[in-house]
């Protein structure tokens, strides 16, 4: 898959295209992407996804923006796995926010991407103040000579699939529902950075992964972990701000692996969340914190003993 950017892209041909944030790349997103890929093969042109970083709501109101399901690298990898040949990534900033819907069509869809066929939902809105809609795209399609198709809502097991529904499931600790909507276990990935080594002092060394955006869950969890594509084993993880000792201003993912004895600094971990044990809590002292972590680890081991 090729990733292009607004500053370095021009239409080198025609593409089949869809547009969105694709946070989570859930079952609904993948159904949409599969349609774009199939149409590209039919028309013998590349398939393309147009997406934004950051999420527009993170730009306009970061304190009210939805929690991030997937970090950018994970999103691109999941889109590539679905078969897309090209992702065009637009940095959402003040210039893009002020772009009129008509200019977005002319400059981005037509001149930059050379759209031949476009798939969006009928409720898709775009452009400054969200003035662009499906009707405007339909008019532009006739004027510029590309095809426009409306994507239906996707349901699975009787539930409409959406990023909001996945966030709600994760916030509630309902990992079975989240997995149904995503089509896979929920995972957070990131590179391990040096920490304060407090976990080591407590007898439970952790791999620390800073999270630049607010995650959709918080608390203590049973997890399975891969390190740079290798199975790193099972363990227990904390997602939060570490309220007892050395609080952090932004969320941190801390993972204690039961049977890993090598160095993890600099490795990229994929942490799969299986069950929530409890909410994050502030303890009176280190002894109470150590006891709580020991209970968490014991409960996680019991979980794996029951589930194989």
Question: How would you portray this structure in words?
Answer:
The chain is α/β, with parallel strands linked by helices. It folds into two domains: 2-160, Rossmann fold (3-Layer(aba) Sandwich); 185-307, Elongation Factor Tu (Ef-tu), domain 3 (Beta Barrel). The chain contains ten helices and 14 strands. Strands 1-4-3-2-5-6 form a six-stranded parallel sheet, with helices on both faces. α5 (101-112) crosses α6 and α7 (163-171) runs antiparallel to α8 (175-182). The longest helix has 22 residues, at 286-307. The two termini are 37 Å apart. The mean pLDDT is 91.
Write the layout of secondary structure elements.
Blueprint: E1 2-5, E2 15-19, H1 27-43, E3 47-53, H2 56-60, H3 72-81, E4 86-91, H4 94-97, H5 101-112, E5 115-121, H6 134-144, E6 147-151, E7 155-156, E8 159-160, H7 163-171, H8 175-182, E9 187-191, H9 198-202, E10 207-210, E11 219-227, E12 230-240, E13 252-257, E14 268-278, H10 286-307
Parallel strand pairs: 1-4, 2-3, 2-5, 3-4, 5-6
Antiparallel strand pairs: 7-8, 9-14, 10-13, 11-12, 11-14, 12-13
């Amino acid at each position: 898959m090729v990733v292009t950017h607004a500053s370095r892209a021009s239409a080198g041909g025609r593409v089949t295209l869809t547009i969105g944030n694709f946070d989570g790349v859930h079952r609904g997103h993948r159904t949409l992407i599969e349609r774009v890929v199939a149409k590209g093969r039919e028309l013998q042109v590349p398939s393309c996804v147009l997406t934004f970083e950051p999420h527009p709501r993170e730009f306009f109101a970061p304190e009210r923006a939805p929690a991030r399901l997937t970090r950018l690298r994970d999103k691109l990898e999941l889109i590539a796995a679905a078969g897309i040949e090209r992702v065009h990534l637009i940095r959402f900033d003040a210039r893009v926010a002020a772009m009129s819907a008509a200019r977005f069509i002319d400059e981005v869809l037509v001149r930059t991407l050379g759209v031949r066929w476009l798939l969006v939902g009928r409720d898709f809105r775009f452009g400054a103040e969200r003035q662009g809609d499906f009707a405007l795209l339909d008019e532009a399609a006739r004027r510029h000579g590309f095809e426009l198709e409306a994507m239906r809502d996707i349901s699975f097991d009787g539930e409409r699939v959406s990023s909001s529904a996945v966030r709600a499931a994760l916030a509630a600790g309902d990992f079975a529902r989240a997995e149904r909507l995503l089509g896979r276990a929920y995972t957070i990935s990131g590179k391990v950075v040096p920490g304060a080594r407090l976990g080591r002092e407590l007898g439970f060394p952790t791999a620390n992964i800073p999270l630049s955006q607010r995650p959709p869950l918080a608390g203590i969890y049973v997890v399975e972990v891969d390190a740079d594509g290798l199975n790193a084993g099972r363990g227990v993880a904390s997602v939060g701000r570490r309220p007892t000792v050395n609080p952090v201003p932004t969320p941190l993912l801390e993972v204690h692996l039961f049977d890993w004895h090598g160095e993890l600094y600099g490795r990229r971990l994929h942490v799969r969340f299986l069950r929530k044990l409890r909410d994050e809590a502030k303890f009176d002292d280190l002894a109470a914190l150590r006891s709580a972590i020991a209970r968490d680890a014991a409960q996680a081991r019991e979980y794996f003993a029951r589930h194989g």
